[in-house]
From TrEMBL:
InterPro entries: CHP03085 (IPR017519), DinB/YfiT-like (IPR034660), Maleyloyr_isom (IPR017517), MDMPI_metal-binding (IPR024344). One of its GO terms (molecular function) is metal ion binding. SUPFAM superfamilies: DinB/YfiT-like putative metalloenzymes. This is TIGR03085 family protein. Residues 7-133 form the Mycothiol-dependent maleylpyruvate isomerase metal-binding domain.
Length: 209
């Protein structure tokens, strides 16, 4: 099983267990909202543009709400459980496009619940995450008001953020660094070193793609 399909399956199991009204780390979204978002992203390419392009976000939100109105929560999770759309045609394409997406959203649900603990990720998944994160670090950290040095446990450095001024070093496993760079700063298990004011500014910065 690919990492994308493993994360998809584990996320859907968790969504089934928690029900439609559980919180997530996605601001204002319940588990029902997140399930609808992921189905939209995969099966409604006409509406997916609003995920990243603000002027299109109204249409995206309306389609997401219609998905919720049309499908009861268990049915929507069942749709999500089956790879679909363009991404689901080939496992390799699914892995390339969905592995990080499903990992991050799986953690969005896990870490919004009480008494969560970080998982120990497979070594090959950590390597994949680091390879992609190091390639995307400048994009994901482009809105950081301070320079950022990502230092992966076991070796590896990537940089991003402001090119001038103070820097903050963020250290941890690749999976935790990814969550930090995706804007989950308060829930990523990483170590930060640098001037206190620079760290404080980085913690509240809007990060991610």
């Amino acid at each position: 099983m690919t990492h994308a399909r493993g994360e998809r399956s584990a996320l859907c199991d968790l969504l089934d267990r928690l029900g439609p009204d559980a919180p997530t780390l996605c601001d204002g979204w319940t588990t029902y909202d997140l399930a609808a978002h992921l189905v939209l992203r995969e099966r409604r390419p006409d509406a997916a543009g609003g995920i990243a392009i603000r002027p299109l976000s109204g249409y995206t939100a309306s389609v997401q709400n219609r998905l919720k109105a049309r499908h009861p929560y268990p049915e929507l999770v069942g749709i999500l459980r089956r790879p679909g759309g363009v991404y689901g045609l080939l496992p390799a394409l699914d892995e390339a496009v969905n592995a990080l997406e499903f990992f991050v959203h799986h953690e969005d649900v896990r870490r919004a619940q009480p008494s969560w603990e970080p998982r120990t990720m497979p070594a090959d998944f950590e390597r994949m995450i680091w390879k992609r994160l190091s390639a995307m670090s400048r994009l994901m950290l482009r809105r950081s008001p301070v320079g950022v040095v990502l230092r992966r446990d076991g070796g590896g450095v990537a940089i991003g953020g402001a090119k001038q001024g103070r820097r903050v070093e963020v250290s941890g496993p690749a999976s935790e660094l990814l969550l930090f760079c995706f804007g989950r700063q308060d829930h990523a298990r990483v170590e930060l070193s640098g001037e206190p004011d620079a760290i404080a500014r980085l913690r509240v910065a809007k990060l991610g793609v």
